[in-house]
């Protein structure tokens, strides 16, 4: 068991670099949720359709809340083979779906519920969750599986954390833009992980030549290489 700081060791000492990157990215999101500009604009429209700033802050914080939720979910015997991360993104229903699709309604409702008690309560809950994960994630084995009952899918814990890291990075930008703040810098390890995932999703959707031209030959680049 990791010793506490008073014994000269941080709780995350010995944790994998990926799990540490997730926690650092979650802490960046938590700091943005706590900004006074976010509280001041709580009921104003956010940068995403049909979501207020408070809804968006709740959705952002939810990328921390989901981790202890899935860690507590038993993995059924019939779902003990994990889905590769790119296959997970091929299976999710929100990519390319209309705003009124049931999955998007569920996502918006979850964000609104998370933020329903206001900015101070959301900040406190997010802080407590990230602090608890600093203690629990180091103890989880490298091959730990998590079950996502809304799929239902089973993923490796670290793949699930990559998916949450991407959500944290993208929605941190959304929330900052919504309230006129500069987007906080995502920690380098987290940003590298997110860019790697988005690049792989973009190549799968548009092909490698489209991405190559976007990065190196703007004169013949496609209109978009958006990952989703």
Helix and strand layout, with pairings?
Elements: H1 17-33, H2 36-40, H3 53-71, H4 85-91, H5 102-114, H6 119-136, E1 145-148, E2 153-156, H7 157-178, H8 188-206, H9 208-216
Antiparallel strand pairs: 1-2
Helix pairs in contact: 1-3, 1-6, 1-7, 1-8, 3-5, 3-6, 3-7, 7-8, 8-9
Report what the structure shows:
Helix content is 57%, strand content 4%. It is built from nine helices and two strands. The protein has helices at residues 17-33, 36-40, 53-71, 85-91, 102-114, 119-136, 157-178, 188-206, 208-216, and strands spanning 145-148, 153-156. A hairpin with a 4-residue loop joins strand 1 (145-148) and strand 2 (153-156). Residues 1-9 have low confidence and may be disordered.
* N-end to C-end Cα span: 40 Å
Q: Which strand order spans the largest sheet, edge to edge or round the barrel?
A: 1-2
- Portion of residues in beta strands equals under 5%
CA-based gyration radius: 18 Å
Order of helices and strands: HHHHHHEEHHH
Task: Note the overall shape.
Answer: globular
Q: How many strands, which pairing sense, and closed or not: the largest β-sheet?
A: 2 strands, antiparallel
> How many beta strands in the DSSP annotation?
2
- Fraction of residues in H or I helices: 55-70%
Structural class: mainly alpha
Low-confidence stretches: 1-9
Total helical elements? 9
Q: What is the arithmetic mean of pLDDT?
A: 93
């Amino acid at each position: 068991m990791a010793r506490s700081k008073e014994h000269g060791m941080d709780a995350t000492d010995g944790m994998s670099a990926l799990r540490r990157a997730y926690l650092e990215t979650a802490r960046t999101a938590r700091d943005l949720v706590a900004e006074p500009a976010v509280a001041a604009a709580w009921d104003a429209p956010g940068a995403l359709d049909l979501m207020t700033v408070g809804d968006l802050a709740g959705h952002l914080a939810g990328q921390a809340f989901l981790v202890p939720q899935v860690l507590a979910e038993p993995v059924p015997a019939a779902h003990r083979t994990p889905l590769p991360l790119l296959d997970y993104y091929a299976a999710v229903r929100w990519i390319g779906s209309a705003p009124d699709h049931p999955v998007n309604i569920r996502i918006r409702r979850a964000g609104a519920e998370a933020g329903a008690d206001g900015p101070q309560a959301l900040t406190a809950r997010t802080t407590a969750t990230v602090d608890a994960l600093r203690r629990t994630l180091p103890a989880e084995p490298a091959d730990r599986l998590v079950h996502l009952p809304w799929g239902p899918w089973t993923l490796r814990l670290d793949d699930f954390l990559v998916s949450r890291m991407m959500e944290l990075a993208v929605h941190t930008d959304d929330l900052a833009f919504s309230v006129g703040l500069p987007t906080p810098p995502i920690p380098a390890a987290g940003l590298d992980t997110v860019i790697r995932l988005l690049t792989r999703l973009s190549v799968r959707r548009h092909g490698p030549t489209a991405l190559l031209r976007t990065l190196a030959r703007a004169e013949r680049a496609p209109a978009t290489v958006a990952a989703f």
